[in-house]
Design goal:
Shape: globular
CATH superfamily of one domain: NAD(P)-binding Rossmann-like Domain
Mean pLDDT: 92
Helix content: 25-40%
CATH architecture of one domain: 3-Layer(aba) Sandwich
Distance between the termini: 25 Å
Low-confidence stretches: 297-308
Largest sheet: 7 strands, parallel
Structural class: alpha/beta
Number of strands: 13
CATH topology of one domain: Rossmann fold
Radius of gyration: 19 Å
Strand content: 15-25%
Number of helices: 10
Oligomer: single chain
Amino acid sequence: MRILVLGGTGFLGGHLVERLRARPGALVLGGGRSPGADFTVDLASDRPDALARTLASAAPDAVVNCAGATGGDAVTLAEVNARGPAVLCTALREAAPAARLVHLGSAAEYGPGVRGTRVTESAATRPAGPYGATKLAGTIAVTASGLDAVVLRVGNPVGPGAPATGLPGRMAALLRAAGADPEAVLRLGDLSAYRDFVDVRDVARAAELALAAPGPLPPVLNVGAGRAVAVRELVRGLARTAGFRGRIEENAGGSARSAEVSWQCSDITAANEALDWRPSRTLDDALAALWSATAEGSCPHPEGERVL
């Protein structure tokens, strides 16, 4: 099975590539902007006809799109998260219409949740900002493409290689810098929001299962832990793992989106039914692996570039 992974050097993509390369009979091809990519692909700027020629050369049986942007201005987010999947689907219809497409979306597409409630795939989508809105546009492009495609709406991935552009990776870097100093003070924003944290390795396993699942899949599947955890609990858990002896202070600024979206939690029943998938790792497992990977030279996916 020839599998083309786009964005395979990022946080999610790197773990998926590692997993797929251990799969018997799988030939994993990388598509991206890095010099080591098997095929040069930039979904933010490639024309559909040029991308179709690249896809024809790759001749994939399946494509996984892990490319995405979490930061930047609205134009950058739109180019990568909205235009990218639309161009990819157009090119696939021309060059490899039988290939299965697994696209990684985001739980941010749902927008604010109702406290105490798990959101299902049929829920209304009300993204709170440009990131969620552009990811939703990408999802719509995929689900309306007519291809054999599925969108995995991923919660908040945590684990080894988490980029410093997100809170878990940034927190790990701060803790590593603080060391055992009992006078250290970490000043963070409001940590009262609740998120559905899922181990990145479980996300990779869900994508692998989606590639191999027989028959058509539901258009969208939630991939999360199915449990909402206060961001404060994640921060304190990582601090305990690191043996941090200093002090953590909240409300030193923070994300406007976190304030606007105080609760997110995914119902993962459909993924269990369609893929026989449930998360196998706990948040403590993810935090321990993240902390271990921040040791010098042991972080497998350090770029944090154009990832979900």
